[in-house]
């Protein structure tokens, strides 16, 4: 099979400062079956574990063996050529590049790394980082290998002698510290020193280090000898090659906790709040106030001042007080802030000219909640909090904001994406505890109770999940649902496990037969070396096929059908409860797409029948149980306040686009 050739006329030379002052990786976009010019050289701003290792072993020139390729379908066509192109390999300037891997975000973006090496060479190279072949399912194997390509903005050095691995805190079948370790005060200071945009030491950092993944929370009790304590749950794979492990001292910082990371209502949160008894009029009022604030941002001093205070824009607020609203420099900044807010109300595919995409679907509901933040969740370092309690200490701008926060006794906590009313948790605020004073701009969960609060909210954990937290008492639900049990086996997991067990059994049988045959009948079965080579090539082929067949549109399709039923019967209806399980098993959803597609077709047919015949007999035990147990009024058609609010977003975006 001839390799896929990059046309010579599209090949350009790298920037002059390549390998001198900066590092660049060559990149191509392939639309349909054709290379789309121009060829790019993407500057490596941060890095990833694989890239750092490659440069440490082979020097900066080792990057020239890498290439990234993005695959996009041709407009108006669904045909995907990525699998056939990758299986042919890519010929660039006389060198053959083969599929290497991808991060989780690259998978969704249809982008992957290629390496100038043989398939066996790539297998052996990845095996130095971990025994990935021991992971039975291709999807989970791809996820683990993806940690090698997960990018980070900043990095520092952590030696092998500077960290410990400590036990997790468990309760029943749950891990209360899942993904959350500790860092010393001096190490947090070191991270601030390398992170140019941090004004203070971070309380929480999301990290990548060797096979560890998760967050570290500041713990002043750690001494200078041990800089970091990882949890056992943070270790996703072990590096068997000691030479590789000792050379991988790069400590990658993915993200840090910051002040003023404002929270916004999206369609799902609005839906769940409305279904839980939050007044529709207040949700509409929040949206209306936000639109007015943006509309008048450049023309009304009060709106500008309110917005800048809420967002913590102290520098711009100083300009407003010193030079007035009409200052040209301030006006440019305000217009840029407003344009950014409006852009975030538009979906990423908003510029695609597709007749099937309605104007409303091009926009997404997004409403600023002044009394809210989006923050990392961490475990209680002192193990003092009880179930149902939390510590949350946001950075606030002035006395008025502080007084409003002090009056709050409870907060709502929810992780995105969320589709079940029980995903909205209401926790009691524990305040004025001196030992927690340093933990700002994060939410501290207890390590006690029947179940971790992070897991109760859409099946989250503490390895980097962020949570919408609001102390707006008007958003506290009137009706509180029990959290959904995300640990129960869904049809997707059961099917996936059945196939996995069957695959393990057949592979074991094949391996025993192959081993016997290689030993006793090499002329028929081949030698053990040939069998091992076939195994490596087969695994590489499976990884390539997983990437090329992955279709994130399936998640969007489940979301669309879920929203149809939610608008008809509310998110507590039995159809929505069943569909919610699909979101909690996103990896298995994509792996079992044939089963999911068949299920969705049935739901779509049933939905159209119900729309045509609104009086059709239908009994929903899930919804009526909630009504009977909690005196919750039944959902009526027209109660989907999120639908007109999304339409309001479209009207507002169109208005702003004409300015």
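^ structure tokens above, recovered residues below v
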């Amino acid at each position: 099979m001839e390799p896929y050739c990059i046309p010579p006329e599209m090949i350009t030379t790298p920037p002059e400062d390549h390998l001198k002052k900066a590092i660049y990786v060559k990149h191509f976009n392939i639309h349909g079956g054709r290379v789309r010019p121009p060829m790019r050289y993407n500057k490596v701003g941060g890095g990833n574990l694989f890239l750092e290792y490659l440069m440490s072993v082979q020097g900066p020139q080792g990057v020239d063996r890498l290439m990234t390729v993005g695959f996009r379908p041709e407009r108006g066509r669904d045909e995907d050529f990525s699998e056939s192109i990758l299986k042919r390999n890519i010929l660039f300037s006389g060198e053959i590049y083969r599929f290497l891997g991808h991060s989780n975000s690259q998978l969704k973006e249809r982008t992957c790394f290629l390496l100038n090496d043989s398939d066996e060479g790539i297998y052996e190279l990845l095996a130095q980082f971990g025994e990935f072949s021991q992971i039975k399912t291709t999807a989970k194997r791809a996820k683990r290998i993806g940690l090698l390509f997960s990018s980070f903005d900043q990095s520092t050095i952590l030696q092998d002698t500077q960290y410990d691995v400590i036990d997790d805190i468990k309760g029943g079948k749950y891990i209360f510290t899942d993904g959350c370790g500790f860092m010393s005060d001096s190490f947090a200071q070191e991270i601030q020193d390398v992170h140019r945009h941090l004004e203070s030491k971070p309380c929480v950092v999301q990290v990548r280090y060797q096979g560890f993944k998760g967050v570290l929370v500041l713990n002043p009790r750690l001494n200078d000898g041990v800089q970091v304590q990882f949890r056992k749950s943070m270790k996703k794979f072990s590096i068997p090659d000691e030479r590789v492990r000792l050379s991988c001292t790069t400590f990658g910082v993915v993200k840090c906790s910051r002040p003023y990371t404002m929270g916004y209502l999206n369609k799902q949160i609005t839906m769940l709040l409305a279904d839980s008894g939050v007044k529709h009029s207040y949700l509409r009022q929040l949206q209306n106030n936000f639109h007015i604030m943006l509309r008048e941002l450049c023309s009304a001093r009060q709106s500008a001042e309110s917005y800048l205070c809420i967002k913590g824009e102290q520098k711009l607020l100083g300009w407003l007080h010193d030079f007035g609203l009409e200052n040209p420099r301030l006006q440019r900044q305000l217009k840029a802030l407003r344009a950014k807010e409006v852009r975030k109300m538009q979906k990423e595919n908003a510029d695609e000219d597709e007749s099937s995409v309605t104007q409303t679907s091009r926009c997404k509901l997004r409403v600023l909640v002044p009394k809210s933040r989006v923050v990392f969740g961490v475990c209680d370092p002192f193990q003092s909090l009880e179930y149902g309690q939390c510590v949350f200490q946001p950075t606030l701008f002035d006395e008025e904001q502080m007084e409003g926060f002090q009056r709050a006794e409870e907060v709502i906590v929810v992780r995105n994406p969320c589709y079940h009313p029980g995903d909205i948790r209401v926790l009691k605020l524990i305040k004025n505890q001196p030992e927690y004073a340093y933990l700002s701009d994060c939410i501290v969960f207890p390590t006690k109770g029947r179940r971790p609060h992070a897991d109760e909210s859409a099946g989250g954990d503490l390895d980097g999940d962020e949570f919408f937290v609001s102390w707006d008492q008007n958003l506290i639900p009137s009706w509180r649902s029990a959290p959904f049990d995300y640990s129960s086996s869904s049809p997707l997991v059961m099917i996936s496990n059945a196939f996995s067990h069957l695959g393990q059994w057949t592979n074991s049988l094949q391996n025993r037969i192959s081993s016997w045959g290689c030993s006793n009948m090499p002329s028929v079965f081949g030698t053990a070396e040939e069998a091992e080579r076939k195994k490596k090539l087969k695994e590489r082929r499976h990884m390539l096929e997983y990437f090329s067949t992955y279709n994130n549109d399936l998640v969007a399709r489940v979301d669309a059908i879920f929203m149809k039923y939610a608008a008809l019967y509310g998110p507590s209806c039995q159809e929505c409860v069943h569909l919610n399980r699909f979101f909690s098993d996103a990896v298995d959803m994509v792996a079992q797409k044939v089963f999911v597609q068949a299920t969705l077709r049935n739901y779509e047919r049933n939905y159209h029948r119900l729309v045509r015949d609104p009086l059709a007999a239908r009994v929903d035990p899930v919804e009526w149980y909630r009504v009977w147990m909690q005196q919750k009024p039944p959902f009526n058609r027209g109660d989907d306040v999120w639908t007109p609010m999304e339409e309001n977003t479209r009207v507002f975006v169109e208005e702003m686009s004409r300015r």
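DSSP finds 23 helices and 24 strands in the chain.
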